[in-house]
Every structure is written in C-alpha cells, then in structure tokens.
Automatic annotation (TrEMBL), chain B:
<keyword id="KW-0813">Transport</keyword>
<feature type="transmembrane region" description="Helical">
    <location>
        <begin position="96"/>
        <end position="116"/>
    </location>
</feature>
<dbReference type="GO" id="GO:0006865">
    <property type="term" value="P:amino acid transport"/>
</dbReference>
<keyword id="KW-0812">Transmembrane</keyword>
<feature type="transmembrane region" description="Helical">
    <location>
        <begin position="136"/>
        <end position="160"/>
    </location>
</feature>
<feature type="transmembrane region" description="Helical">
    <location>
        <begin position="222"/>
        <end position="250"/>
    </location>
</feature>
<keyword id="KW-1003">Cell membrane</keyword>
<keyword id="KW-0029">Amino-acid transport</keyword>
<feature type="transmembrane region" description="Helical">
    <location>
        <begin position="6"/>
        <end position="27"/>
    </location>
</feature>
<dbReference type="InterPro" id="IPR052157">
    <property type="entry name" value="BCAA_transport_permease"/>
</dbReference>
<protein>
    <submittedName>
        <fullName>Branched-chain amino acid ABC transporter permease</fullName>
    </submittedName>
</protein>
<feature type="transmembrane region" description="Helical">
    <location>
        <begin position="65"/>
        <end position="84"/>
    </location>
</feature>
<keyword id="KW-0472">Membrane</keyword>
<keyword id="KW-1133">Transmembrane helix</keyword>
<dbReference type="InterPro" id="IPR001851">
    <property type="entry name" value="ABC_transp_permease"/>
</dbReference>
<feature type="transmembrane region" description="Helical">
    <location>
        <begin position="257"/>
        <end position="278"/>
    </location>
</feature>
<feature type="transmembrane region" description="Helical">
    <location>
        <begin position="34"/>
        <end position="53"/>
    </location>
</feature>
Length: 372, 292
C-alpha cells in the first residue's frame, strides 16, 4: 500500500526540497543576472502577476468559485494605497497595509452578496463589480483623479535610481509571494482547507455534512481580496501611476484566471508557473504587437486552448505524462499475502488501542496520494 | 413634463432592444446551461459587418441582415457542436464562461486588427430625422431599432409556441432528460437553440449600429447591463428577461435626468446587487438559477 501511495503521490520529499531550493535560488539571483533594467522591470511585472494569481487561487483553487473580477481588489488596493499617502501623508508601507485592510473590510459585504449565488451567476457578479468600479473611478474625478489617472508618490528617496528601485521591488514582491505560498500551503493542510475543498467538490453534500460552507467561503474570499489588494498596492508604489482603465480591467482579472488554470489551481506552485508563462507571453505580445489589438487574440486563443484541453493545468498534465512512462501500477498486489495479513494485524491493533485519529489521518493521506 | 415623457418613450425603446439581446442570453442558458460572455462581442461584430456593408456598397445597413442572420445562425450551431459540447459536464457552466470569454477576446482583437481601433459610425440619409410623439421627439433610427427588436421578439415567440421545433426546444429547456426520453434529439435542438440565440445578436447588433458609434472594445460596455438583466430576471427565464429589460431600461432612462448618463448606468449594477441580496435566484427564475 505504501509503495502504491508514493507512486501516485508524485515526487519524493528530497527531490521536492531540492526543487524548492532551486526556485528560491533562481528568484534571488534574477536581479543580478538580468542584463538590463528593462528585463528587470519585466521580472517585477511577472512577479506581480505571480502574487496576483496566487492570491486569486485562495478562492478559485480551494472553493472552485471562478472570479473574473479580481482586478476590482487589486485596483482598489492600488488606489487605497495611493490616496492614503496623498491625503493623509502616512508612511507608504503603512498605507499599503492600511489599504489592504480597507479592501478586506469592503470585501465582506461584497462577499456576502456575491457568494449567495454559485457558478455562472457568481462570475457575472464578479464582472459587474469591476465594471461598476471602473465607472465610479472614472466619474469621481475630484477624488480619484478620474480618467487623468493618479500619481502615486515614490516610497524611496530620490537618490534611489530606477534600476535599484526595480531590484528592491522585485525582492518585495518575492517576499510577499513567499508569504502567500506559505499561507496557501498552511490552509491546504488544515481542516479549514479541507472544508473549502469539500465546497469545491460538492457544496450541497459539504453543507449536509455540517461544514459551515458560507462562513468558510467568506473567509477565503476576504483573505484572497486582502492579498490581492496588497499586490495591487505594491504594484502602485512601484509603477507610481494609476489609470482606472488599466486598474479596473476585466483583462487583468482574466489573466489571473488564465495563469492559475494554466499552472493548475489545485497545486501550490501552479499559479506561479502559470504567471511566469503567461506573464512572459503578455509582455512579449505587447512588445511585438502593441499597436494592434493582436495580443488580445493571442491571449484569447491561449485561454481557449487551456479550457478545452488542459482544464486541470500543466502540473497535473505533466504528472500524468510522467506517469505514462513509469512502470504501470499493477492490478495485482505487489505485497505477499503474509505481509498484508501482518499489516492488517498492526492496523487492527492500532484501532483497538483507541486511536481513531491515526486511521482517519491514514485514509486522508491515502486518498490524497491516489488523486494526482 | 415633456422631458419626463421623452425619457419614458426612450426608455421603452431602449428596453425593447435590451429585451431582444437578453432573450438570446437566456436561450443559451436554457438549452446548454451556458453563460455566453461573447454575446455582446458578437453584437459588436454584427454592427461592424453592417457598417462595412454600408460603407462599401452604399446600401441600407438593414440589408446586411440577409447575410448576417444566417451566418450567425450557422456560427452558433458550429460553436455549440465544436466547442461547447466538448467541455466536461461537471464543470460545464464555469468553463463555458471562460471559453466564451476567450471567444470575446478573439473577436475584439480581430476587430481591432482588421478595422483598427478608430470609432466608426454609419451615415444614414434618415439619420437626423425625428418624429414628434405627444411632444416628445423620437429619432427615426431608434424607432427602427425598436421595430426590429419587437418584430424579432414576436417571431421568436411564435417560433417557440407554434412550431414543432419550438416545442422541442422548450421541452429541452425545461427538462433535458425527459425530452430525450420522448424522442427529442436534444443535441441537435441545443445546437439550433444556440444558433437562434446568436441570430438575435446579429439583429441586435445591426439595430445598434444605426444610431451609435462603434469601436472594438464597446462590448465591455454592453456585457454588464445584459448580464444584470438576466440575473435580475432569473437565469433561463425568457419572460423574466424581457420584463427585467423593460424595467431596467426605463429606470436607466428616467435616472438620466437627475444623474446624467454615466451615473445612470450604475443603476443596472445596483439592481443586480440588490437582487442578489433579496432573491438570489432572480425575480422570475425558479430555484434552477441559484445552482448555476
């Protein structure tokens, strides 16, 4: 049984640790390897996308509620940060956190309204939210700068030159990403995360089993909005300029969905992988076909391909491919009847010793291991 | 007083157009449980085709309907057969949203690529004329658009109520399994239903092109109000969509007097959120709507 579990469960722990180490090394080394400030700034943009996609995945990945309108929270976070600095003059980093908190507060009533409906209606509501915010921020010129945009003051001294600023913001985004990944990982392994995944698989059954589905969904939604707002605020501090058309854009929201779906919404690093691929593609297409609308066509086709052929994402798809070339799991048991009897005996003994938790833990591990 | 009357008349005319477009959306949702985000992109595509037809031949844009309506019908059937029906049933609703969203992006991108982002407008000989109606001025183009919408809604109603195909379509919407049991080929009916929905987009888009300036990203402007209408009316209910379209169109038109055009648009979204708070399944849909 244990052998079957490792086979289905993917890579061994040592290899995983090595991969993680390599990832951290690449991220830390990137700014010194980047040949010029432009590439470095692209790196910051991709990091920002990675933070956004991972934040999105707190709702999309755990509960299966696909929000096309998460740009609402990143835009609000950016504007909240900028407006707080301009109007109250507080420390920019404090403004960033306060902006996140404000957006999290706003997300509570929005979540209560929009999480009452499922599936398609939820997506419609998320789109509507972005459109209404675009309208408000464009029209309310006296407060938000309207269509002229909003200039966000730089958080660093003027002595910090642009390349250095890119480098600092690259590491800041990386740090935020690390926090997010850790939080996602922790939720993934918690009882709370299990409840959210139950919502994703079958909400009615989860409710019948006593999972407080609405509260769980709402908490995940607010956490996701908070992190998305932080990402938006950090981007605003880096870029220094906000325009409603780009901040409250369904396109940005759809990038988050595309990145997460492409990488795999059920895996920790899926959105990050998707962000690297899609982020690079977006920058490339904008660079090459910026004058025409051709980059929209490219993104649309990419999204359609992912939805039609890879709805589970690259990581599971690659896992299945690797699985194909490995020795097939035999339908005949690979342990002798003697071993099996021995295992049963120890299992029964453990059960009788009054440790039901170990059994449930074991079954959890087994079911997780079997599903790729 | 005449300002109020003017708004009322304009609201009814606008509501009629909204009703036609929302009817298409409820058709897709009824037959396939698909929320078609690309509906408004097809609307703009039809408007562009009408503009291109008029500017290259000099004929009336309404004549382009002879080409666009059958073309869109075939496109709709093909879309349902080749793309939508390939999605897994378990995640159909969610994934169809993303799939149709990507179609909308492709259409917007291609329109920008082929016709550039310049704003376009059809010049009509009767474009500036208006009729007086109890002291309210009504532009002729708006009346024509409303007439188109009313005619096609009536045709849609007759098709659904009086023909055998309509009966099969209604049966498929109400209960697909039962429809299959009594021998209806629901696959084919769903394809035709989808084509029918897209054909309404062709008519709506042409009506729209008569009196508005068009540009590739205009469809974002339409998607919100249309989606709000079908949620308020209750997903999948055609009468619900029609009533919601008239009420919201009227409301928007009336609110334009005190608030101005931009803020009046928020009315749709406020109605949407209010509906979710009071009746998440919409005012006319059954419990079906809440699940999707």
């Amino acid at each position: 049984m244990t052998r079957a579990t490792t086979r289905g469960g993917g890579l061994p722990t040592a290899l995983k640790a090595l991969g993680l180490l390599a990832l951290v090394a690449v991220v830390l080394a990137f700014p010194s390897m980047a040949p010029d400030p432009f590439i470095l700034s692209v790196g910051v943009v991709i990091m920002s996308y990675a933070v956004l996609a991972t934040s999105w995945n707190f709702v999309g990945g755990f509960t299966g509620y696909i929000s096309l309108g998460h740009a609402a929270y990143s835009g609000l976070g950016g504007y909240a940060t900028g407006l707080l600095i301009i109007h109250t003059g507080i420390n920019p980093w404090l403004a960033l956190l306060a902006g996140g908190a404000v957006v999290a507060l706003l997300a509570v009533p929005i979540g209560i309204a929009s999480l009452r409906v499922r599936g398609a209606s939820f997506v419609i509501v998320s789109i509507a939210l972005v459109l209404i915010l675009l309208l408000v921020f464009q029209s309310w010129g006296s407060f938000t700068g309207g269509s002229n945009g909003l200039r966000v003051p730089r958080p660093f001294d003027t002595s910090v030159l642009r390349p250095e600023q890119h480098e600092r913001f690259f590491y800041l985004h990386a740090a935020l990403l690390a926090v997010l990944l850790l939080a996602w990982w922790a939720i993934d392994r918690s009882r709370f995360g299990m409840g959210l995944k139950a919502v994703r698989e079958d909400e009615d059954k989860a409710q019948a089993l006593g999972v407080p589905t609405f509260t769980y969904k709402l908490v995940a939604f607010v956490v996701s909005a908070f992190f998305t707002a932080l990402a938006g605020g950090l981007y605003a501090l880096w870029f220094g300029y906000l325009d409603p058309i780009f901040q409250f854009s369904i396109l940005v929201g759809s990038y988050m969905v595309l990145m997460s779906l492409l990488g795999g919404i059920r895996s920790l690093f899926g959105p990050l992988l998707g962000a690297v691929i899609v982020g690079y593609a977006v920058e490339y297409f904008k660079n090459q076909y910026g004058d025409t609308q051709f980059h929209l066509v490219a993104m649309g086709l990419l999204l359609a391909l992912v939805v039609l052929f890879m709805p589970d994402g690259i990581i599971p798809a690659l896992g299945q491919l690797v699985q194909r070339f490995r020795p097939q799991a035999a339908s005949i048991r690979e342990m002798t009847a003697e071993d099996l009897a021995e295992q049963r005996r120890t299992q029964d003994a453990a059960d009788e010793a009054g440790a039901p938790t170990t059994t449930s833990e074991r079954t959890d591990r087994e079911t997780e291991g079997v599903r790729p | 007083m005449s300002l109020l009357l003017q708004s009322l008349v304009l609201g009814v005319l606008l509501g009629g157009l909204y009703a036609l477009l929302a009817a298409g959306l409820t058709l897709y949702f009824g037959v396939m449980r698909v929320v078609m985000i690309a509906h408004s992109a097809f609307l703009i595509l039809a408007a562009y085709l009408a503009w291109f037809f008029t500017s290259s031949t000099g004929l009336d844009p309404l004549l382009s309907l002879l080409v666009t309506v059958p073309l869109f019908f075939v496109l709709g059937v093909a879309m349902q057969r080749l793309l939508i029906s390939r999605l897994r049933p378990a995640t159909l609703t969610m994934m169809s949203v993303l799939l149709t969203f990507s179609i909308a992006l492709v259409i917007e991108g291609m329109l920008g690529f082929v016709f550039s982002g310049t704003q376009r407008r059809i010049r009509l000989p009767y474009g500036g004329q208006s009729l007086e109606f109890f002291g309210a001025n009504v532009a002729v183009v708006k009346l024509i658009a409303f007439g188109l919408a009313a005619t096609s809604l009536l045709a849609l109603y007759l098709l659904l109520k009086k023909t055998q195909f309509g009966q099969a379509l209604r049966a498929t919407i109400q209960h697909p399994e039962a429809a299959r049991l009594v021998g209806i080929n629901t696959e084919r009916v769903a394809g035709y239903g989808f084509g029918l929905g897209l054909a309404t987009a062709a008519i709506g888009g042409t009506a729209l092109s008569l009196d508005s300036t068009i540009y590739p990203s205009l469809h974002w402007h339409w998607i919100g109000p249309l989606m709000a209408i079908i949620v308020v009316g209750g997903l999948g209910s055609i009468p619900g969509a029609a009533i919601a379209a008239l009420v919201l169109g009227l409301g928007q038109s009336l609110l334009q007097i005190p608030l101005g055009t931009t803020w009046a648009q928020t009315f749709f979204y406020l109605a949407l959120f209010a509906t979710l708070m009071v009746r998440p399944q919409g005012f006319f849909g059954g419990r079906l709507a809440q699940r999707f």
